[in-house]
């Protein structure tokens, strides 16, 4: 019964979100920075805040990248996981509160491939909002990956009453997507500095 409920909820959410996003106009800025980072033949940690998860994930639906996201095993996350997979995002299962060691090990393994891109909600899965967590950053530092920020803004939106204030664009809105430069100071990859870096580029 729970599996059937999960399938129905995933299908409903995919339908609603795909209809909304199909009506939206996309305005992409500084994509050349992202393209240049890919050409550097080094893996990428693509950072953003949890509130932008839907918009960022939907942007990558039309791309053909070796792209991974992180999803916990909670029921709500399972619903969203079905949507993300339909948008061509491969998932690492686990979170900072459950299965985190599996996430760390998987990230280290994936980052051995120079084409790997891991898109990460640095304040997920439960906050605090807009505060980067240390675990994934320690992996990024150890593996010598390129750290970038992808940000999204929309001129018309709904904001959910969740801890992260999840953003859902309204139909026929304009979505601005922007890529930052690669983070420069590889000796200062920590929560404080990456939190500042994401905020400055969001």
Please give a structural write-up.
This protein is α/β, with parallel strands linked by helices and 202 residues long. It has one domain. 40% of the residues lie in helices and 22% in strands. A 7-stranded mixed β-sheet has the order 1-9-6-2-5-3-4, sandwiched between helices. A two-stranded antiparallel ribbon has the order 7-8. Helix 4 links the parallel strand 3 and strand 4. Helix 1 crosses helix 4. The mean pLDDT is 92.
Taking all Cα atoms into account, the compactness measure Rg is 16 Å
Terminal Cα separation, in Å? 41 Å
Count of helices?
Answer: 7
Described by strand count, sense and barrel closure, the largest sheet is: 7 strands, mixed
Shape: globular
Oligomer: single chain
Q: Can you write the helix and strand succession as a string?
A: HEHEHEHEHEHEEEEH
Low-confidence stretches: none
**Number of E-state strands:** 9
Strand order of the largest sheet: 1-9-6-2-5-3-4
Helix percent reads 40-55%
Structural domain tally: 1
SS content category: alpha/beta
> What is the mean pLDDT?
92
Work out the strand percent.
Answer: 15-25%
Compact overview of the structure:
Helices cover 40% and strands 22% of the residues.
Write the layout of secondary structure elements.
Layout: H1 2-23, E1 25-29, H2 31-39, E2 44-48, H3 53-59, E3 67-71, H4 75-86, E4 90-93, H5 100-110, E5 117-121, H6 134-143, E6 146-154, E7 157-159, E8 167-169, E9 174-179, H7 191-200
Parallel strand pairs: 1-9, 2-5, 2-6, 3-4, 3-5
Antiparallel strand pairs: 6-9, 7-8
Notable characteristics:
202 residues, two-stranded antiparallel ribbon, alpha/beta
């Amino acid at each position: 019964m729970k599996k059937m409920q999960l399938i129905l909820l995933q299908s409903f959410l995919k339908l609603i979100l795909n209809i909304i996003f199909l009506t939206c106009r996309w305005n992409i800025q500084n994509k050349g920075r992202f393209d240049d980072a890919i050409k550097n033949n080094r893996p990428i940690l693509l950072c953003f805040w949890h509130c932008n998860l839907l918009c960022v994930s939907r942007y990558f639906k039309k791309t053909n990248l070796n792209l991974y996201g992180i999803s916990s095993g909670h029921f709500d996350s399972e619903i969203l996981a079905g949507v993300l997979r339909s948008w061509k995002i491969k998932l690492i299962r686990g979170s900072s509160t459950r299965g985190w060691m599996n996430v760390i090990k998987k990230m280290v393994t994936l980052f051995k491939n120079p084409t790997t891109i891991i898109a990460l909600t640095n304040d997920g899965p439960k906050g605090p909002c807009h505060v980067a967590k240390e675990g994934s950053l320690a992996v990024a530092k150890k593996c010598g990956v390129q750290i970038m920020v992808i940000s999204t803004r929309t001129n018309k939106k709904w904001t959910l009453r969740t801890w992260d204030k999840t953003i859902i664009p309204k139909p026929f809105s304009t979505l601005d997507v922007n890529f930052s430069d690669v983070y420069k100071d590889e000796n200062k990859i920590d929560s404080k500095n990456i939190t500042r870096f994401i905020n400055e580029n969001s």
